[in-house]
Amino acid sequence: MSRRLAWMAVGTVAAERKRIGVTPEGAKFAVIGRPLVGPAVLAHPQWVAPLSLFVELLASPSVYELVPIGSKGIYYEWMQLSAANGRQGRACACPLPLFASGGPATSFLISYDRAAEGELRKRAGRLFFPLFAER
Length: 135
Prior knowledge:
The protein is of the alpha+beta class. About 25% of the residues lie in helices and about 20% in strands. Strands 2-4-1-5-3 form a five-stranded antiparallel β-sheet, with helices on both faces. The termini are far apart.
């Protein structure tokens, strides 16, 4: 039996506009929104990061990278982000459950310039959850 891998592109991004593996040493990290799945999405809409906030932070020069939290959870996405930046195996801590499924991407992980933390906290409000990275 052969296995096939299928890909679907919803849009295109010019290579020079991609922000992958661009987080500098000294950056800080946070999760915006809570990872929710199934009925919890409908029961707790106040914890879902709105698309408008995602777009706003994507446009911010203070935010280096944004990664939606998928079904494998915060820790998995953290490890992917760390690996993309050449920092494998770094532990992290967060006030949210690190292994909870994010199902329909109700939250996202960001890396950002530490000087902009106050502004980012203000923009995200109660959806801002710091992620503390091992150095």
